[in-house]
């Protein structure tokens, strides 16, 4: 697709969403104050003006218009996907969509294996029931299996207010949150993916696109999913907040298009299932239209053409340092160097934002986070007057999911912008 065609596709993607709700020392430098000559110019949209200017100058300094550009060894950029290229997490929203409609494709026995695999049998003391009791994983797992078995025997799809369905979805979300908070991150990455086991590639893509479309049409909001009082099970009544809605980021789609037009290759490296991300990242209707081979994510085995429970061999879990290993394995060897540009939003992206000496710029979507990504955000803030920043910030409005023309972010549920976290109480 041509560059102009990509711009047109971006517009179509936005209408869809709205209608549905060299070595580093030898590399050229760029300056936040240098002018651009038109090559690599980004649409203003809702970029923070300085962040956009820094990005344009990076593209001018390293793209095909640069005398130092080598088409045999083109530079490349790597983007995280969830909450970087889009607002929201398309794998988590896929879980919400699937659980709310009981669109699983596993027999009961496989579900029991999928939800127990790799999870230590522990007590989740930091995640309690509504009446303050700790939850043992053994009890939680028993409830999940009982609810799933009840629903799997039904001849018809369950009603939205079916107590077994409401119990299942609340405890699935609770389990994922508790596992994410208390277990190794790789365990949580695999756990949520295994809930999709049994789908073939076509069915999974259809399901993911339906979820994307539905969530693009929803208001950005938080809901509370709670276990019905009539179905406490062994674990008890659980309530968990769930974030609803997705949004396209036309600024990212435009950036990726401009990078590619300037001879800078674009890749995605996500901690979500590769096939799920590819539905979003490769579809021109969403405005991104990346080559399928340029999407890297978590890989699983597909026995008999259906998503299985086992990890694909010889491939890391693309989370934290696993993203660095994947980039080195799949991209750095071929390109002969690390990425020129890395874009991310969370501490799961910290490693790939900092690991490569060849990386000239890191774009951080400002989510006011603490931890390692908060450290990088603080560096970006300290470099806001620098001609050659290593990191830059881009703000967003958490209430709409759209970018704002500032480095500052408005948290969901608030109306005051902040440059750094933590989120201030209202």
Automatic annotation (TrEMBL):
Residues 1-23 form the signal peptide. The keyword Cell membrane does not apply. It comes from the Bacteria. InterPro entries: HAD-like_SerB, HAD-like_sf, HAD_sf, TAT_signal. Keywords: Hydrolase, Magnesium, Metal-binding, Signal. Gene3D superfamilies: 1.20.1440.320, HAD superfamily/HAD-like. Pfam families: HAD (PF12710). Coiled coil: none annotated. GO terms for molecular function: hydrolase activity; metal ion binding. PANTHER family: PHOSPHATASE RV3661-RELATED, PHOSPHOSERINE PHOSPHATASE. This is Phosphoserine phosphatase. It comes from Novacetimonas cocois.
